[in-house]
Design goal:
The chain is α/β, with parallel strands linked by helices. The chain is built from twelve helices and eight strands. The protein has a single domain, classed as TIM Barrel. The protein binds flavin-adenine dinucleotide.
Length: 331
């Protein structure tokens, strides 16, 4: 059954002032969104953005991408955080603006590497003051040429410590990153990396969002180990990147350590420089991948949008999941 409801159906919410620091009641904890959608037998759809670097990028995100995505009503959005805090203010500003203008729950990413506890606390207090209720707690990566930056007086070495810190502050639903093929820097084996993910959940993470992958068996093996061997009970949501460009996906997978299976790469290379054919194939491939993941019990889909609406909206439509956002509880 499809429950049609968008955030604009609650007239009381529409009357709330659109000013900074006001948290509309439509902004929810993501753990509650997952619980509601699970009870309705529907997947949770989330879409990830990065903070635009230019006014033109802002315009594209707010004037084109977001309105197009709102038409298919994902359950929540998330906004990334630049390495070492380079987008700190921008991340919070974009999350705040989405929540105020679109009344849709948006999660702020936060990394802790080479950041002091005081700065982390300040970010969280600022987030809270803006009505941001969800944080994706990450370690982050040091830039290649960072030298001694890692030694900056810093309260956190791994993200489980950040999860614990946020949990202790209270008031947030916490997401964490999971790696179906193991984290690229983990040399101790997949299962050790997955046990470390369990530690993040034990310290307070409510939801796992995964790194991109193309072979669903990687996700199912990872999920089954977490659930059946480690007893994890929180949602483990696959992260999906629709392929839009062959060179770009080769670069991304090399950086994040995800496998681009040889038959998939061969297929992409056979398209040569026919960019449109690559995009069409990428959307179709991602649709089939998502379909199989949902059929295999995935609790939702986290779509990496690269700030473009086209692929994400097409995939959501192809899956018949347009406007299945869970209803906003009335206060
Ligand atoms: C959904 C998603 C969103 C992301 N968003 C961003 C973003 O906005 N900004 C950004 O900069 N990056 C982002 N990343 C990338 C992420 O920051 C990097 O992958 C980073 O290298 C790992 O982050 P983590 O939180 O998983 O780290 P951790 O959980 O700390 O793990 C990092 C490494 O340390 C190891 N480890 C963990 N605990 C221990 C321990 N106790 N002892 C020894 N080793 C340990 C792990 O096995 C792993 O190899 C994102 C990743 C995902 C999947």
């Amino acid at each position: 059954m499809t429950h049609r409801m968008t955030s604009t159906t609650n007239s009381r919410i529409d009357q709330l002032p659109v000013t900074a620091g006001v948290a509309p009641t439509s902004i929810r904890l993501i753990r509650d969104i997952y619980a509601d959608k699970q009870a309705m037998g529907l997947p949770v759809i989330s879409v990830e953005f990065f903070p635009p670097k230019t006014p033109k990028g802002d315009e594209t995100l707010f004037e084109r991408t977001l309105p197009a995505l709102q038409a298919v009503a994902p359950d929540f959005y998330s906004v990334t955080y630049g390495a070492g805090g380079s987008t700190r203010d921008k991340t919070l500003a974009v999350v705040d603006r989405i929540q105020r203008e679109h009344r849709t729950t948006t999660m702020a990413h936060l990394t802790c590497i080479s950041t002091s506890r005081a700065d982390i606390e300040h970010y969280l207090l600022e987030a809270r003051a803006k009505g941001i209720r969800n944080i994706l707690a990450l370690r982050g990566d040091l830039p290649q040429d960072s030298g001694d930056l890692a030694q900056v007086e810093c309260g956190f070495e791994y993200s489980y410590q950040l999860v614990a810190f946020i949990k202790q502050m209270g008031g947030f639903s916490i997401g964490t990153a999971g790696f179906p093929e193991s984290h690229v820097a983990c040399t101790d084996g997949k299962q050790v990396d997955w046990q470390r993910l369990k530690a993040k959940i034990d310290h307070g993470a409510d939801v796992v969002l995964t790194q991109l992958f193309f072979d669903n068996d990687d996700y199912f093996t990872f999920r089954d180990y977490l659930v059946e061997t480690l007893g994890v009970r929180v949602p483990i949501t696959p992260g999906i990147l629709p392929i839009l460009n062959t060179e770009q996906i080769k670069r991304f997978t090399e950086i994040c350590g995800s496998t681009l299976p040889a038959p998939l790469l061969a297929k992409l290379e056979a398209f040569g420089d026919d960019a449109e054919a690559v995009t069409e194939f990428g959307i179709e491939f991602a649709t089939r991948q998502c379909e199989a993941l949902l059929a295999g019990g995935a609790p939702g889909l986290h779509l990496y949008s690269l700030n473009k609406a086209h692929a994400a909206t097409r995939i959501i439509d192809n899956l018949g999941l347009r406007s299945t956002r869970s209803p906003t509880p009335r206060a």
